[in-house]
């Protein structure tokens, strides 16, 4: 058995003031009768009834006369089944097509909702990346003094390996390399300062603002002063292209991105210092490493130091292969030598002719001064 054969619905007719009224619909075995709230009665015989579906919900069933002057409608979920039952199968065919229509309406509605949900999510993601992109672009507007401040505080909070080297021959040699490269920096306002640490680590890094650290392990490994200058040019390029700030923007996302855009750099400095402690400030994406290689080559070229020396350093590291000590940190954060050698050569091919001059450094003498350092310990 089905429920009551009385349903709440409505009527469209020119005979009603305003053309429309709510009504109570009663189903009998021959047809339906609607008693409107205005007190009028309207009836449609099943044999004259033309069914249709629609409404905002897609659930509204319309029963129309052939001349379409009268329409009785009902949104009750039980209405179609009751109609089928009362009409004794007379409307079965029309009802099944209405049901199919309702199903496809439902599917369409759900598809639309799903589509809207996907579009909304995409807009959010797109907006997020757009915001990050804007933040990265607005790094240009952040004063270089912010980089300097981040670098200074980060260096103070870092626990560096080994003791600081004060040997004048060693320190002056490294400073000479930096002095040759520094005037060719495209970012003005940076002050490059190098600190040499006595440790077997084959590593060097540059913090935002230009504070650099080089370990004696790397100096001892290098066959020429120009190879070290090659590594330093790459590290300086990270500071020149402000990769530290980009790194901060990437890691900390939206909040920092917004801070950057509104020019609040206080939080940025605090975050940079935290990142600096975890060395996250000096480990970059492959994309940024490649950019540092290219800018490093440009820097070397402009400073009249043969950029192929950098490739030579990679070659040397590559040849050592599996014998590399675990302490070769620079290598582990800068993998893929073959690709990097290719990047160096590619970047060099784009540059004009240049008369390379050797660095004014007695590399053998530097090596002499490096070795006793090891014996002292
Ligand atoms: Zn790097």
Strand content: 15-25%
In which order are the strands of the major sheet placed?
4-3-2-1-7-6-5
Euclidean distance between termini CA atoms: 98 Å
List the bound ligands. Answer: zinc ion
Number of strands: 11
* Number of continuous helical runs: 13
Poorly predicted parts: none
Element string (H = helix, E = strand): EEEEEEEHHHEHEEEHHHHHHHHH
Sheet with the most strands?
Answer: 7 strands, antiparallel
Helix content: 40-55%
| Count of the separate structural domains | 2
In round numbers, the mean pLDDT is: 82
Computed over alpha carbons, the radius of gyration is 39 Å
Spatial shape: rod-shaped
Which structural category fits the helices and strands? alpha+beta
What's a quick, concise take on this entry?
This protein has 377 residues and is an alpha+beta fold.
Describe the protein in words.
The protein is of the alpha+beta class and about 375 residues long. It has two domains: about 5-95, Pleckstrin-homology domain (PH domain)/Phosphotyrosine-binding domain (PTB) (PH-domain like); about 140-375, no CATH class. About 55% of the residues lie in helices and about 15% in strands. The protein has helices spanning about 80-85, 90-135, 145-155, 170-180, 215-220, 225-240, 245-260, 265-275, 285-300, 310-320, 330-335, 335-350, 365-375; strands at about 5-15, 20-25, 30-35, 40-45, 50-55, 60-65, 70-75, 165, 195-200, 205, 210-215. The strands form two sheets. It has a seven-stranded antiparallel beta sheet. A four-stranded mixed beta sheet has the order 8-9-11-10, sandwiched between helices. Helix 2 (about 90-135) crosses helix 7 (about 245-260), helix 6 (about 225-240) packs across helix 10 and helix 9 crosses helix 12 (about 335-350). The longest helix is centred in the N-terminal third of the chain and has 46 residues, at about 90-135. The radius of gyration is 39 Å and the shape is rod-shaped. It starts with 5 loop residues before the first strand and ends with a helix. The model has no long low-confidence stretch (mean pLDDT about 80). The structure holds zinc ion (ZN). The site of zinc ion (ZN) has 6 residues, from helix 6 and helix 9.
């Amino acid at each position: 058995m089905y429920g009551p054969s009385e349903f709440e619905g409505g009527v469209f007719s020119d005979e009603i003031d305003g053309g429309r009224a709510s009504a109570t619909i009663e189903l009998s075995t021959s047809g339906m009768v609607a008693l409107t709230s205005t007190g009028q009665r309207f009836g449609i015989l099943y044999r004259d009834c033309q069914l249709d579906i629609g409404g905002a919900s897609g659930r509204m069933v319309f029963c129309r006369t052939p001349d379409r002057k009268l329409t009785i409608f009902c949104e009750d979920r039980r209405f179609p089944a009751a109609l089928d039952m009362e009409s004794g199968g007379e409307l079965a065919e029309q009802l099944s097509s209405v049901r199919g229509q309702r199903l496809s309406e439902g599917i369409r509605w759900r598809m639309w909702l799903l589509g809207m949900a996907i579009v909304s999510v995409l807009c959010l993601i797109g907006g997020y990346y757009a915001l990050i992109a804007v933040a990265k672009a607005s790094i240009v507007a952040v004063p270089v003094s912010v980089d300097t401040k981040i670098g200074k505080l980060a260096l103070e909070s870092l626990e560096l390996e080994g003791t600081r080297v004060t040997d004048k021959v060693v320190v002056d040699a490294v400073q000479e390399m930096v002095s040759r490269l520094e005037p060719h920096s495209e970012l003005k306002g940076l002050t490059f300062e190098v600190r040499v640490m006595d440790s077997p680590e084959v590593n060097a890094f540059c913090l935002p603002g230009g504070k650099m650290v080089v370990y004696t392990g790397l100096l001892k490994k290098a066959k020429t002063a120009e190879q070290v200058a090659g590594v330093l040019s790459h590290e300086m390029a990270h500071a020149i292209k402000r990769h530290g700030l980009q790194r901060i923007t990437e890691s900390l996302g939206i909040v920092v991105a917004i801070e950057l855009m509104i020019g609040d750099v206080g939080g940025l400095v605090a975050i940079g210092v935290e990142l600096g402690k975890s060395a996250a400030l000096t480990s970059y994406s492959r994309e940024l490493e490649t950019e540092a290689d290219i800018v490093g080559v440009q820097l070397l070229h402009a400073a009249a130091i043969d950029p192929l020396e950098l490739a030579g350093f990679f070659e040397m590291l590559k040849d050592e292969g599996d014998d590399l000590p675990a302490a070769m940190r620079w290598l582990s954060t800068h993998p893929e030598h073959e690709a990097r050698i290719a990047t160096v050569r590619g970047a060099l091919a784009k540059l004009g002719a240049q008369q390379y001059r050797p660095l004014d450094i007695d590399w053998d003498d530097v090596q002499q001064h490096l070795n006793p350092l090891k014996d002292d310990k």
